[in-house]
């Protein structure tokens, strides 16, 4: 039932630490107000397993206990990637380590205490005062754990054990395609809320003007309880179109509330040409969560015959790119504004679609894509697994968990038009096709408004096309093998095998060494030649969504990965893959 009385919206407080790296000396936060949110960004202490006494991360995990000797730990800033901080924490087989921080918390007033981490890679265990309060796997996606039972009044020791070892990651996906940056990669915080609270809301608009609000929350009560909120909707020009109270019913035990739909009338549609965003302000009662401002767009995406259509208009021949999240000195830790300039420059050059490869990106990246009118293919981190491995319970459960969490977080972004359930997996087998079928079927129970795919490298040997909405193929003719002049005929064959579904080249390109003279492989001349030839063959091909270059940025690769280069030998240390700048003939969209 609904709580009695009229709810008063809580005021939002700006988090002074968010997006700011502070000095790395002290790792003790001053006392904060008992209700609301306390940032955990800033100074922590960290040590790799090799720097600790034997057994510190095993059993009861002594390194998580309040009285553990911290003399072997070094100051670091969170968020950060472990290997980007110190070279000895960077190893081909990965490491395990522990983060520690002391935080003042007042557990009074009947409030509950949660730890929230936006991205902890890869397998992470969370402790408060030595007690394990939760765990997560995968990275790139948020996790919230209930620490109420472990919190004491005053000083509390928060510890996170991070396992980014190759052996741990390889249990559910493949590590060798690129460098695996472990650590608390994005922001973290303490959230203090009542026993029933809203922890997140998304807003999606469709072409008919229906706005769907979806809330997630916590509820420790025996039955479902509703939280009353105040919702204000404004058009892109700022004009108010709707103001009303909305109840979100949180089920017993917490989780997803029943979706709420609102009719805003004839909407201004979001498109690449006109990325119109509405403003939705949701005021939440004090102690029942944080008030939020959301920026949804109203649009539909579908397949019509052999084409992808947005708002009924055919979308084709898009220029795009893939994007790793690596950056010098940061690893895979991305401050919210870090890629804004990059995306704006690429948009100005004519690029209109991109794919974060091969893992979920950050909400800030998607928000910029929303504003620019760029389309996004977002993907779960399941790559190059064999068919039999794909259908093991461990891999399937991990993939479904990643897909669910990705959809829950990112469905409010109109730029996201395709969900991908993996990259270059063994879909040339019956087991691989079974995995694609089951993951896409599951995905459509979560979100039936977008398209689904699995990015393939099997071309005419792939057995999973029947289960996909749109076919994305990685094509490296002219680099790894195949004739540079055979790209169009290959797409013809793939589309025929897929029953005429829309197709897209999801990766193509060649490595190049900046300034290398000559015309052969490994030179910028050959790289540009490949781009020109692919555009000549595919740029005006009917029923083709487009093609995406690999990649827009450099990234650090695993030392066993050669990247098809004839001029570099395998090494025992990480190597940086440099795709080079796209030629003007490619960039002009």
Automatic annotation (TrEMBL):
Start-end of Basic residues biased regions: 567-578
Domain Glycoside hydrolase family 2 catalytic: 301-555
Molecular function terms from GO: hydrolase activity
Parts of the chain that traverse the membrane: none
Segments forming domain Glycosyl hydrolases family 2 sugar binding: 96-187
Pfam families listed in its UniProt record: Glyco_hydro_2_C, Glyco_hydro_2_N
Entry keywords, A to Z: Glycosidase, Hydrolase
Biased composition (Basic and acidic residues): 14-32
Disordered as annotated region, ranges: 1-40, 560-589
Annotated family: Belongs to the glycosyl hydrolase 2 family.
Identification of the protein by name: Glycoside hydrolase family 2 protein
Lineage: Bacteria, Bacillati, Actinomycetota, Actinomycetes, Pseudonocardiales
């Amino acid at each position: 039932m609904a709580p009695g009385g009229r709810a008063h919206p809580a005021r939002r407080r700006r988090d002074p630490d968010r997006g700011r790296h502070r000095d790395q000396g002290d790792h003790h936060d001053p006392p904060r107000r008992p209700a609301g949110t306390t940032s955990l960004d800033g100074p922590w202490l960290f040590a790799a397993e090799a720097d600790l006494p034997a057994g510190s991360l095993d059993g009861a995990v002594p390194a998580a206990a309040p009285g553990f000797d911290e003399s072997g730990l070094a100051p670091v800033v969170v968020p950060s990637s472990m290997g980007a901080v110190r070279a000895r924490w960077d190893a081909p087989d990965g490491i395990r380590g522990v983060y520690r921080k002391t935080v003042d918390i007042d557990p009074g007033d009947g409030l509950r205490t949660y730890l929230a981490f936006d991205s902890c890679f890869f397998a992470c265990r969370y402790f408060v005062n030595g007690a394990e309060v939760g765990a997560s796997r995968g990275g790139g996606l948020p996790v919230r754990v209930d620490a109420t039972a472990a919190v004491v009044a005053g000083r509390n020791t928060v510890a996170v054990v991070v396992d980014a070892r190759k052996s741990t990651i390889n249990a559910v996906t493949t590590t060798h395609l690129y460098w695996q940056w472990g650590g608390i990669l994005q922001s973290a915080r303490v959230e203090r809320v009542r026993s029933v609270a809203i922890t997140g809301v998304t807003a999606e608009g469709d072409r008919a003007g229906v706005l769907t609000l979806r809330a997630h929350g916590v509820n420790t009560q025996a039955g479902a309880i509703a939280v009353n909120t105040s919702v204000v909707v404004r058009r892109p020009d700022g004009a108010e179109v709707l103001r009303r109270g909305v109840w979100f019913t949180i089920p017993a035990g917490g989780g997803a509330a029943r979706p709420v739909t609102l009719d805003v009338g004839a909407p201004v549609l979001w498109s690449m040409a006109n990325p119109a965003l509405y403003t939705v302000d949701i005021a939440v009662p004090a102690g029942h969560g944080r008030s939020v401002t959301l920026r949804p767009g109203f649009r539909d995406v579908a397949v019509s015959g052999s084409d992808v259509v947005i708002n009924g208009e055919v979308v084709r021949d898009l220029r795009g790119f893939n994007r790793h999240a690596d950056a010098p000195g940061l690893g895979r830790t991305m401050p919210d504004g870090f890629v804004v300039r990059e995306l704006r420059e690429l948009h100005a050059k004519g690029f209109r679609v991109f794919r974060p490869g091969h893992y979920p990106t950050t909400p800030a990246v998607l928000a910029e894509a929303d504003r620019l009118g760029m389309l996004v293919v977002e993907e779960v981190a399941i790559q190059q697994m064999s068919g039999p491995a794909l259908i093991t319970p461990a891999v399937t459960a991990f993939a479904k968990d990643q897909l669910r969490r990705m959809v829950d977080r990112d469905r409010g972004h109109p730029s996201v038009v395709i969900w991908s359930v993996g990259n270059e997996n063994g879909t040339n087998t019956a087991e691989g096709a079974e995995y694609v079928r089951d993951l896409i079927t599951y995905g459509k129970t979560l979100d039936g408004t977008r398209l689904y795919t699995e990015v393939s490298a099997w071309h005419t040997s792939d057995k999973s096309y029947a289960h996909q909405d749109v076919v994305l193929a990685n094509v490296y003719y002219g680099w790894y093998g195949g004739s540079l002049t055979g790209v169009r005929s290959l797409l013809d064959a793939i589309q025929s095998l897929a029953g005429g579904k829309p197709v897209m080249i999801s990766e193509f390109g060649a490595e190049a060494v900046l300034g290398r003279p000559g015309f052969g492989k490994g030179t910028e001349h050959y790289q540009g030649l490949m781009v020109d030839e692919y555009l000549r063959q595919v740029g005006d091909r009917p029923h083709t969504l487009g093609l995406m270059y690999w990649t827009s940025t450099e990234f650090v690769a695993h030392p066993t990965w050669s990247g098809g280069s004839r001029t570099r030998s395998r090494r025992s240390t990480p190597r940086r893959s440099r795709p080079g700048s796209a030629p003007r003939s490619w960039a002009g969209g």
